[in-house]
Amino acid sequence: MNHTAHRIVVRLDSLKPIDKTCTALAARIDTDRLEIFTWDTLMPGLKQTINLDLISGFIMYGIFDHCGLFSGYLNTFSDVDPGAQKEYGVLIAIGTNEGLVTVLRHEARY
Q1: Is this prediction's pTM over 0.90?
Q2: Number of domains in the chain
Q3: Is the pLDDT of residue 35 over 60?
Q4: What percent of the chain has pLDDT over 90?
Q5: What is the pLDDT of residue 97?
Q6: Are residue 9 and residue 58 in the same domain, yes or no?
Q7: What value does the mean pLDDT take over residues 13-27?
Q8: Nearest CA to 42 among 12, 7, 4?
Q9: Contact in structure between 60 and 67 (CB atoms under 8 Å)
Q10: Which residues contact 18 (CB under 8 A, 6 or more apart)?
Q11: With the CA atoms of 13, 17, 20 and 21 taken in that order, what torsion angle do they form, in degrees rounded to the nearest 10?
Q12: Claim to verify: residue 1 and residue 22 sit in the same structural domain
C-alpha cells in the first residue's frame, strides 16, 4: 500500500475538455495498473437524471404560474360578484374612503 493511489480526482472549470484531459492523463499514467473513469462511465444515467430534474422544475414552475394566473382571474371575477361585500367591507374597515370603494366596485364591474 505504500506509494499507491486509490483515487485521483481531477476538477475542471468546464465540461468541454474532458476528452482531451482523459487522453492526456492516459498518456502519462500506467494504464495497465490504473484506469480512467468519467462520470459517463461511472454513472451512465447521471446526465439524464439532471436533465429530467431540470425539465420537471420547468413544468412545476409552469403549473404554479398558471395557478397564480387563475387565482388572479378568479379574484377579479369574485369582486364583480355582488356577493363580495365582505372584501369591500374590509377595505372600509382599514380606513378606505367609502367613495373610493364605490368607484372601485364600479370599475370592477366594467
Answers
A1: no
A2: 2
A3: yes
A4: 10
A5: 77
A6: no
A7: 86
A8: 7
A9: no
A10: 12, 38
A11: 20
A12: yes
User: 38: Cβ–Cβ under 8 A, 6 or more apart, which residues?
Assistant: 18, 22
Give CA–CA dist 39/21, Å, rounded: 13
Q: How many CB atoms lie within 10 A of CB 36?
A: 14
Residue 83 has a pLDDT of: 62
- What average pLDDT does the segment 49-71 reach? 87
> How much is the pLDDT for 57?
93
The alpha carbons of the chain give a radius of gyration, in whole angstroms, of: 31
Range of the domain at 10: 1-44
Does 56 share its domain with 28? Answer: no
Cell numbers placing 68: 397564480
Same domain, residue pair 17 and 68 = no
Check whether residue 51 and residue 34 sit in a common domain.
Answer: no
